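Task 17 of the worksheet. Students: predict the tertiary structure of the chain below and write it out as structure tokens. Keep your answer in the requested format; marks are given for formatting as well as content.
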Amino acid sequence: MRGKRLWRNGMTLLEVVVAIAIIGILMALLLPAVQYAREVARRATCGSKLRQIGLALHSYEAALRTYPSGAITSRDSSPTSNCAVGGNANQDSFAPWTVLLLPHLEDDARHQNFRCERAFFGLYHAMAPAPNDAEQLRRCSIWECPSDPNSGIGNANCNYFGVQGGGNVPSCGGSSGYAGRVFFYNGIFHNNSRITAADIADGTSNTMAVGESRYLQL
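Model answer:
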């Protein structure tokens, strides 16, 4: 056996450590890229939903000659009557624009589940008549942006909000305890609004109608 070299199979501990280190480096490089690609896809979905909502709004206006009300309320529709949170949320609040727009977002079946002549719950969840209460708490993915971690099964999340308007001076402000809440009545969506395309002086392509946000007070 003298002069012959013995060969053995397997890897040394050093080789194993080097291989693990290489795999770790590759994972560290690849995972952020994968996460970035996934987020780009999610953001593309969110952008597509905004476009669909915009088209649905134009479809609604073409059919009914007005954009949907931000929210229908039985209270006086003057600004000063609607800034305070007072009133009965399960009696004074009726269908919001998100429900009114459903048929134009190809979800007429969901729209039929609501009873728009009955009350909805408004700024906070006080029980509304059936079936609206249960339907408001049931998930509707049309109004979800997948980038929001709150979006998911069993959570009636909403990321799309109608724009009331804006400016340096609000139409009115909230009462004591809600002093930070302000209302505008110069936009497309406010209480009992009936805005037409002709009312938008700057043109629809230059005016914000809907925004995307993670904030939802309900």
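Marker's comment: The first helix runs from residue 13 to 64. The mean pLDDT is 82.
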